[in-house]
Amino acid sequence: MWTLAPRASAAAAGGTVHGDLLGEHEVFHTRDLAEARDLTSQITGQHTLGFHDGSRRCDSVLRAFPITEDVCFLYFFYGGNVRVEVPEGAGSLTLLQTPLGGPARVECAGFVVDQDEAMGTVVEARRRMRMDFTAETHRLVTAFRPGFLTSTLTSMLGHPPREDLVLDGEAPTSAYVHRLARQMAREVGHGLPLLDSRAGRERLAELLATTLLMGQPNNYLDRLRAPVRPAAPYYVRRAEEYIAANAARAVTMSELSQVTGVSTRAIQTGFRRFRQTTPMTHLREVRLARVREELLGGGCRTVTDVAMRWGFSSLGRFAAAYREAYGEPPSQTLRRST
User: Fold this and answer.
1) Global pTM value
2) Is residue 138 helix, strand or coil?
3) Which one-letter DSSP state was computed for residue 220?
4) 306-321: per-residue pLDDT in tens?
5) Which stretch of DSSP H or E encloses residue 237?
6) Confidence class of residue 120 from pLDDT cuts 50, 70 and 90?
7) 302 contacts: CB under 8 Å, gap ≥ 6
8) Which of 49, 72, 260, 321 is least crowded, fewest Cβ atoms below 10 Å from its Cβ?
């Protein structure tokens, strides 16, 4: 779950805050910049927060509304000329920054984006980043936990991605992505029926993630926009469902034949024709994806524990397959999440 800081009390500021977005979900309102930094860090990860351009006054507000365990709306307003600096590996969230008013400058991964009310960005908090805001800048941020965009991508592709999802933060995000985020955030305070149930919130989170993947340049966008191929037969889909539910076990072709009601040869042929792979290769890819999600999510003590839990008995072959799939050893992935 999202760690939401307690509302600031004695230090609460009394100034006017631009915008009423998420107004009933205030986490803090303070003129103490150190307090704003400490409370925000509980949600977004460690960062530094200081003044720039001479001014040393602020009137900071953070509002937060968790949609699900994986997606959260955040409203930021600092009320001063402040600079946010995030060190490499300090966080793991993907942040869709939707402009609501005022300018901002974002420097991340070697590029610089000057934001205004028509230009938002997508940044990954695990990368070194610097952001400059003014007293007029206020932003809606849609925060995605690690693994959620990848799982959404898996659903859209029909199979686990064979390489890491890479969002192009330098490229502008399509306007409809920001329109959706703004509209949904406004509906938070207006009794949107989708928010009344867990299933509704999950559909909303999936809609936001899907829209982002289709509206932000990334290394899978061409495949996502490609013409839809003929649907795979039921037995291929049933085999995929069974593999997904039993990926930690030693699934065999005989099992797949029993649960689908067709021959092992038919399953092999179906996977080659409609998925361009084999059932056992698909099983390995699912396992690798599950391992990576756990490593990126933090809380893992060793790579060995996670690999063994997902059915990899030969650690040498696992490490080689992982490096081939993701371009780095699993130990490096684990270090980035801690």
Assistant:
1) 0.72
2) strand
3) T
4) 999 999 989 999 999 9
5) helix 234-245
6) confident
7) 334
8) 321
Task: Identify the DSSP state of 227.
Answer: P
- Of 242, 244, 234, 305, the C-alpha closest to 274 is 234
Tokens 């990368």 locate to: 127
Please give the structure tokens belonging to residue 337. 């999440």
Q: Which residue has the tokens 């207006």?
A: 190
pLDDT computed for residue 17 by the predictor: 46
Please check whether residue 28 is in contact with residue 76, taking contact to mean a CB–CB distance below 8 angstroms: no
Quickly state the pLDDT bin for 19 (edges 50, 70, 90).
low
On the question of pLDDT at 142 being above 90, the answer is: yes
Tell me the residue length of the chain: 338
Reading the block at residue 19, the tokens are 């915008």
Q: Which residue shows structure tokens 């072959």?
A: 317
Closest CA to 13 of 27, 29, 36, 24: 29
CB 31 within 8 A of CB 13: yes
Confidence check: pLDDT of 225 > 50: yes
- At position 319, the amino acid (one-letter code) is A
Q: Residue 127: what residue type?
A: R
6 by Cβ neighbours in 10 Å (0-12 / 13-18 / 19+) ranks as exposed
State residue 112 phi and psi, 5-degree precision. Answer: -125, 130
Domains and CATH numbers, the chain: 1-228 (2.60.120.10), 234-337 (1.10.10.60)
Three-state SS annotation for 41-101: HHHHCCCEEEECCCCCCCCEEEEEEECCCCEEEEEEECCCCEEEEECCCCCCCEEEEEEEE
Rounded to the nearest integer, the mean pLDDT of the chain is 86
Is 159 strand, coil or helix?
coil
Tell me the per-residue pLDDT of 154-171, one tens digit each, with 9 for 90 and over. Answer: 888 878 888 889 998 888
pLDDT of residue 12: 40
| Cα–Cα distance, 69 to 289 (Å, whole number) | 19
